[in-house]
Write a structure and sequence with these properties.
- Keywords: 2Fe-2S, Dioxygenase, Iron, Iron-sulfur, Metal-binding, Oxidoreductase.
- The protein has 105 residues and is mostly beta strands.
- The chain has a single domain, classed as Rieske [2Fe-2S] iron-sulphur domain (Rieske Iron-sulfur Protein), CATH 2.102.10.
- It contains no helices and ten strands.
- The chain has strands spanning 4-8, 16-22, 25-32, 35-40, 54-56, 59-61, 68-70, 76-78, 87-93, 96-100.
- The protein is globular, with a radius of gyration of 13 Å.
């Protein structure tokens, strides 16, 4: 599994979200409850950037239609989205956030 450095932990606001690129893949990084989560940065319902949404109660809410996605599983927690978004593995190395797009084997 290959991890790529994407930013510093301090770049991700606590309780907030930022958008980064891992290669050509858009990734939304969320920091909540002392953890950093990585989700595909495209809403499965409306194909807009999730990183422009809001974070609360373990979910990331799409700004356009209000679809919410669980930070750990990427599954929608309510309509209008019905398809999950991919989630990616995150590793913290010192002050750096690393993300892997590889599937676990």
């Amino acid at each position: 599994m290959t991890f790529e450095k994407v930013c510093k932990v301090a770049d991700v606001p606590d309780g907030g979200v930022i958008g980064v690129e891992v290669g050509d893949t858009p990734v939304a990084l969320v920091r909540q409850g002392g953890e950093v989560h990585a989700l595909h940065d495209v809403c499965s319902h409306a194909e807009v950037k999730l990183s422009e949404g809001e974070v609360y109660d373990g979910t990331l809410e799409c700004w356009l239609h209000g679809s919410c996605f669980d930070l750990r599983s990427g599954k929608p927690t309510g309509p209008p989205a019905i398809k999950p978004v991919p989630v990616y593995r995150v590793k913290i190395d010192g002050d750096d956030v690393l993300v892997s797009l590889s599937k676990e084997s």
